């Protein structure tokens, strides 16, 4: 009975007697009011048409997947819920500025009495957005130009370009991202970049020019990423006073690596979550036959949060590991109470990193004492009490695993203290802590007392 | 032999010459080029003349390890010094010097001849290596980039070639032809030959850093195989320079083990 719009996917249920009743009731005035009340009380409905208005360059075929679920709604509450979910899915494509949903009774010649039309009014992002910033840092000024082209070919592809021109260094990055239509979590991206970094804790300067491609796909509840990266890496001394161990690593090298990352993230926020857990395991295989395991575990339960990090570099050949591939430990985002990356093997004051490390943290969060600015500004702040521990060393792989474990268990650096945490939107986290470092070995640089930290990922 | 001067150019001057002093240069067999080999041999000869032992270590990234970007450089204690000029100064601060016996006029003359070798011979070597297309393609680029894998080897080799060509442009040598460069080498050798005359060393009985520098360049030119023999022929036409090289090789290199000899294993008498 009646025609069905081509976009419907399932056979729609029809109920004869009710239809007849509804058709009669719709002609009256007051009964119409009752009729509406009836509909609101979980009356069975049928979604007949789903429109998407406001499309320009976006191709329709990728959108059908996102809105398909709306057709399966059986009653009004369900329609509203599924429409909301479809709106979220449309927004996460990153191609619309906003999406509005309008649910109305079906109209037209083929309209059923209990039919509904759902309309999504979308506003596409502009074809190209640009940004220009100037940044001033440590004796350096730079100008950053950004260009973003969302939805380049109409199927949620994204092209971004960033160029930074500074008094000391120049860097750039070009990135192309394409999701699979209908499965946004399956996507691939290609990146081209040149980045320069200065690492004063090692007196090292690094310039990377590289290309990388990565594939992401979900498997059940986990998210996997496979990435190939080819980098031309140039290392150099940051100052004339660099140690000879760092000087020996200067020069050019070519690094080709294949990496796999698995992530399970159930946290409710990336910055200062209140509940959830994060498990991230990363393996990399470099062309010089180095294999690298990197593990991050993060668990939070209301006021208590724990995290455990670990990593290991396994040389499968004769070549020693490069200073740029090794792990570093210490600092306001890592084991607090120590200077930035200033734990472990060092030579003449330059920290060389280690081939294996572990680090753990335990935090207790409470709201600010006396709760100033409750309900608004004060909610962004938290006080926390923390306990951090970790160790970083090189292993002699000729010895057995038992010797390795004992080496990692001795000389543990740890610290405890308290501080204030500020959450900056969903972008960053700031901390101001009073730290007391313990287990300090000769060669480590500590920062006892007040320490300030800003970043995204904290131990 | 050497007069001990107390000159405190740096606190390191007080430290004695360590046993583990090392000289770094590019890989001898596959990578090092004529100009770098000549500079390295000059420094090694100078150190032998001073009686200071040094170990030669070959690294693929020696050029990038050097604080000035030029090879060779020496690692003494915790000091790193590169190129012959600064090394001579550094050694002087430690109390060893070869040119103390010279008066001011002779010292100025020595400096002038060292400048001549650097501006003529060294520049000619660089020109032949990098600005002559045939040599660059057959010898220089493949050797320079041999430790690296594709595509890094091509990138680095061309980068180096363009850098040297820019330098030649800046000093006005890019307009010269290969023949003119050979002529310049010949003239330089003539000047050196005239100064040397029949003396054993440039300043009569005692060798100085000038002798080390001249030996380094001439010996390397004579014993390195290039695409043709013209450069070696230019040097060979001056017999007193030939016997000068022979003499220094015998005095300072044949005495020690064969392993400590840098340059090419060929000795001068074997060259046809």
UniProtKB/TrEMBL annotation, chain A:
Its main location: mitochondrion. Residues 45-125 form the POTRA domain. Keywords: Membrane, Mitochondrion, Mitochondrion outer membrane, Transmembrane, Transmembrane beta strand. The keyword Transmembrane applies. Pfam families: Omp85. Residues 1-25 are annotated as: Disordered. It is found in: Mitochondrion outer membrane. InterPro entries: Bac_surfAg_D15 (IPR000184), D15-like (IPR039910), POTRA (IPR034746). One of its GO terms (biological process) is mitochondrial respiratory chain complex assembly. One of its GO terms (cellular component) is mitochondrial outer membrane. It is a multi-pass membrane protein. Belongs to the SAM50/omp85 family. This is SAMM50 sorting and assembly machinery component. It comes from Cyprinus carpio. The lineage of its organism: Eukaryota, Metazoa, Chordata, Craniata, Vertebrata.
TrEMBL record, chain B:
Residues 186-248 form the Metaxin glutathione S-transferase domain. It is found in: Mitochondrion outer membrane. InterPro entries: Glutathione-S-Trfase_C_sf, Glutathione_S-Trfase, Metaxin_GST, Mito_Protein_Transport_Metaxin, Sam37/metaxin_N. Keywords: Acetylation, Membrane, Mitochondrion, Mitochondrion outer membrane, Protein transport, Transport. The keyword Transport applies. GO terms for cellular component: SAM complex. One of its GO terms (biological process) is mitochondrion organization. CDD domains: GST_C_Metaxin2, GST_N_Metaxin2. Pfam families: GST_C_6, Tom37. Residues 40-161 form the Mitochondrial outer membrane transport complex Sam37/metaxin N-terminal domain. Interacts with MTX1/metaxin-1. Associates with the mitochondrial contact site and cristae organizing system (MICOS) complex, composed of at least MICOS10/MIC10, CHCHD3/MIC19, CHCHD6/MIC25, APOOL/MIC27, IMMT/MIC60, APOO/MIC23/MIC26 and QIL1/MIC13. This complex was also known under the names MINOS or MitOS complex. The MICOS complex associates with mitochondrial outer membrane proteins SAMM50, MTX1 and MTX2 (together described as components of the mitochondrial outer membrane sorting assembly machinery (SAM) complex) and DNAJC11, mitochondrial inner membrane protein TMEM11 and with HSPA9. Involved in transport of proteins into the mitochondrion. Belongs to the metaxin family. This is Metaxin-2.
């Amino acid at each position: 009975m009646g025609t069905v719009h081509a976009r419907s996917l399932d056979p729609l249920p029809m109920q004869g007697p009710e239809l007849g009743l509804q058709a009669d009731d719709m002609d009256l005035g007051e009964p119409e009011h009752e009729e509406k009340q009836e509909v609101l009380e979980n009356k069975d409905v049928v979604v007949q048409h789903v429109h998407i208005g406001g499309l320009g360059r976006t191709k329709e075929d990728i959108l059908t997947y996102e809105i398909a679920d709306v057709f399966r709604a059986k009653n009004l509450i369900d329609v509203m819920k599924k429409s909301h979910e479809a709106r979220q899915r449309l927004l996460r494509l990153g191609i619309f500025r906003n999406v509005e949903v309008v649910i109305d009774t079906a109209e037209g010649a083929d309209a059923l009495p209990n039919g509904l039309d759902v309309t999504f009014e979308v506003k596409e992002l502009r074809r190209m957005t640009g940004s220009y910033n100037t940044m001033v840092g440590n004796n350096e000024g730079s100008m950053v130009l950004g260009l973003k082209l969302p939805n380049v070919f109409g199927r949620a592809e994204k092209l971004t370009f960033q160029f930074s021109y500074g008094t000391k260094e120049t860097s750039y990055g070009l990135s192309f991202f394409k999701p699979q239509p209908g499965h946004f979590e399956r996507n691939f991206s290609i990146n081209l970049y040149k980045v320069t970094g200065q690492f004063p804790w090692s007196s090292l300067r690094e310039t990377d020019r590289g290309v990388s491609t990565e594939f992401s796909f979900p498997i059940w509840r986990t998210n996997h990423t496979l990435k190939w990266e080819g980098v031309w890496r140039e290392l150099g001394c940051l100052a004339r006073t660099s140690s000879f161990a760092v000087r020996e690593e200067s020069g050019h090298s070519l690094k080709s690596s294949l990496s796999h990352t698995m992530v399970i993230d159930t946290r409710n926020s990336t910055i200062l979550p209140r509940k959830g857990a994060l498990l991230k395991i990363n393996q990399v295989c470099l062309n010089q036959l180095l294999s690298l395991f990197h593990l991050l575990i993060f668990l939070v339960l209301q006021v208590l949060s724990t995290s455990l990090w670990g990593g290991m570099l396994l040389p499968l050949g004769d070549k020693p590991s490069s200073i740029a591939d090794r792990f570093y430990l210490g600092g306001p985002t890592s084991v607090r109470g120590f200077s930035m990356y200033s734990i472990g093997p060092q030579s003449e004051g330059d920290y060389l990193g280690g081939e294996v490390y572990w680090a753990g943290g335990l935090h207790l969060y409470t709201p600010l004492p006396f709760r100033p600015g409750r309900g608004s500004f004060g909610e962004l702040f938290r006080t926390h009490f923390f306990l951090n521990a970790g160790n970083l060393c090189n292993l002699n792989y000729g010895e057995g695993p038992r010797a390795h474990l004992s080496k990692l268990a001795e000389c543990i650096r740890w610290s405890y203290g308290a501080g204030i945490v500020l959450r900056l939107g969903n972008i960053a986290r700031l901390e101001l802590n009073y730290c007391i470092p313990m287990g300090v070995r000769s060669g480590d640089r500590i920062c006892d007392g007040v320490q300030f930290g800003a970043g995204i990922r904290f131990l | 032999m050497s007069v001990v001067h107390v000159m405190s150019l740096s606190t390191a001057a007080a430290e004695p010459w360590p046993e583990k002093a090392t000289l770094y240069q590019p890989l001898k067999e596959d990578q090092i080029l004529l100009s770098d080999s000549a500079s390295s041999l000059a420094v090694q000869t100078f150190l032998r003349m001073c009686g200071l032992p040094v170990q030669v270590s070959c690294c693929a990234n020696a050029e990038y390890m050097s604080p000035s970007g030029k090879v060779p450089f020496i690692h003494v204690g915790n000091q790193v010094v590169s190129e012959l000029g600064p090394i001579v100064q550094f050694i002087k601060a430690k109390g060893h010097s070869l040119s103390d016996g010279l008066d001011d006029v002779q010292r100025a003359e020595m400096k002038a001849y060292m400048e001549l070798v650097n501006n003529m011979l060294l520049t000619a070597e660089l020109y032949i290596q990098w600005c002559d297309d045939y040599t660059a393609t057959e010898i220089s680029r493949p050797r320079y980039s041999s430790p690296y894998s594709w595509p890094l080897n091509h990138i680095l080799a061309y980068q180096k070639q363009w850098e040297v060509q820019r330098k030649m442009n800046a000093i006005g040598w890019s307009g010269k032809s290969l023949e003119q460069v050979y002529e310049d080498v010949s003239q330089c050798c003539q000047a050196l030959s005239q100064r040397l005359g029949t003396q054993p060393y440039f300043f009569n009985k005692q060798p100085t850093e000038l002798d080390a520098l001249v030996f380094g360049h001439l010996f390397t030119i004579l014993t390195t195989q290039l695409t043709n023999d013209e450069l070696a022929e230019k040097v060979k036409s001056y017999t007193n320079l030939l016997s000068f090289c022979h003499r220094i090789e015998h005095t300072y290199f044949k005495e020690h083990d064969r392993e400590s000899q840098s340059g090419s294993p060929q000795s001068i008498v074997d060259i046809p």
